[in-house]
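Aldo/keto reductase: structure, please.
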Amino acid sequence: MRYTLFGRTGLRVSEFAFGAMTFGTDWNWGAPEDEAARMFDAYAEAGGNFIDTADVYTDGSSERILGRLLKGRRDDFVVATKFTCAAAGGGPNSGGSHRTSLAASVEGSLRRLETDHIDVLYVHARDLFTPVEETMRALDDQVRAGKVHYVAVSNWPAWEIAHANTLAELRGWSPFAGIQLRLNLLERTPERELLPFAEATDLAVVAWGPLAEGRLTGKYLRGESGRRDTFRFGADHARDEEIARTVVALAHERGWSPAQVAIAWLATRPGNVIPLLGARNAGQLRDNLAAGDVELDAEALRRLDAVSAIAPGYPYDFLGDPTVARSIHGDYGPGRVVDRRRSAGRPFVS
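Here you go.
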């Protein structure tokens, strides 16, 4: 296992994060505690140290199980959890990113995790009712109190993360050090704005859903069942199947599993991208962890990028038009002027 830094901090995290969303059977598809323990031990034995959960996962069972598994080795792991989502059966203030919700959620997470601090606290999603200023100041209060070490954000647009961090840095508050977002071969739209923004500002990117709820493993091509209808977002079924078949074919040719191919592709994205692995048993997790040994050559990447390519979208397709480019650069545009700087500020889409 290799390690990387979490954004512009000195915090060392493993190249793969491990998601504890599957800890507990409260949601009818997770793993019982004994299997969660086997997965946790397999991840630790591989050298992993970055564990991800949330206050609402499996109605709190995820944090409770993780807290028990961390006993005696808490300092060996970087524990990330989240707040914002409303608790089941809670009142009108049980959810959201306001100060009251944040304070209650942090206290609940500390209690369930049986710890005195949270290493990384994510804002789980954008609360449209709460001003960004309130959220950032309330997060900084938790950092100053020593209950949270670093703050991060999930499921926000790039422009609003930029606004939040600019505000935090201007006022001396704790800025977001990382972003957690959905990124896989079926969902590449973060490459339009979020990934260039993260690379330009040195934010770590934790990529959730790397296997697209199992669609990239090829299991559904074989007629197996699962959670494939989760997080569809208007997906193109024919396109999804073509991508999955390409992943499966490449895996068969090279002697890898399809999951390893899909996860290894994530590691080739520009910037500091950390795949978030989720599994329901230790065998699945070990297979996913082996993606660290997979090196995709130029031909493999060309095939994967080509089949999963998305349109750049405005304004990138407009700016990339030859006529527009010439009107901007004259005779000294791309091709004649070689830009050897990193790709920050430009979209990564193929």
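Notes: The mean pLDDT is 93.
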